[in-house]
Amino acid sequence: MEILVRAHSGLRYVVLALLVAAIYIAFTKRNQPNAPYSKVYLFAMISTHTQLLIGLILYALAWGVKVRFDMMSDRFYRFYTVEHVVGMIIAIALITIGHAQAKKLNHGKVFTFYLVALLLILISIPWPFRSLGANWF
Questions:
Q1: Are 112 and 17 in contact, with CB atoms under 8 Å apart?
Q2: Helix or strand or coil: residue 57?
Q3: CA–CA separation, 134 vs 132, rounded Å?
Q4: Pair 85, 93: CB distance under 8 Å
Q5: Predicted TM-score (pTM) of this structure
Q6: Start-end of H helices in 1-137
Q7: How far apart are the C-alpha atoms of 121 and 126, rounded to whole Å?
Q8: Nearest C-alpha neighbor of 115 from the set 95, 93, 96, 100
Q9: What is the CA radius of gyration of the chain?
């Protein structure tokens, strides 16, 4: 379990770097209708889907151990059971839609979808300064 938590925490920086790179590429190509497809879009999507799989495994393993009836009244449990999961799933859906737009060479929409997804991800990450029990790695 500890290995999965560390992998999930460390891989977030790869996801963030790839999303920033994809957003930059989409921003520079947004006014070029015939600009070629960039593999960075695909790598950003693959990395977020990998994070989703690791996160779902962690969620399933932790759910059986930490089920509580008063979860929604506790800030810590509410974040991990609702806010983090819902925010990340919405962000991954936006990234998937953005990647579909990338295949159509619609870089302006890729920029919009990936940027909104990045903001959702940044909000949904349990950063150490939020006092949610998470570390930098």
A1: no
A2: helix
A3: 6
A4: no
A5: 0.87
A6: 2-29, 39-65, 75-78, 84-103, 107-124
A7: 10
A8: 95
A9: 16
Tokens of 34: 């015939």
Residue spans of the domains in the chain: they are 2-130
Whether the Cβ atoms of residue 133 and residue 125 lie closer than 8 Å to each other: no
∠ Cα 87 116 77 (to 5°): 15
Q: State phi, psi for 70 to the nearest 5 degrees.
A: -105, 30
Please choose, from the candidates 47, 58, 48, the residue with its C-alpha nearest in 3D space to the C-alpha of residue 3.
Answer: 58
What is the pLDDT, as a whole number, of residue 78?
A: 78
List pLDDT tens digits, range 72-131. 667 777 787 788 899 999 999 999 999 999 999 999 999 999 999 999 999 998 877 777
Number of alpha carbons in the 13 Å side-chain half-sphere of residue 59? 18
CA 13: distance to chain centroid? 10
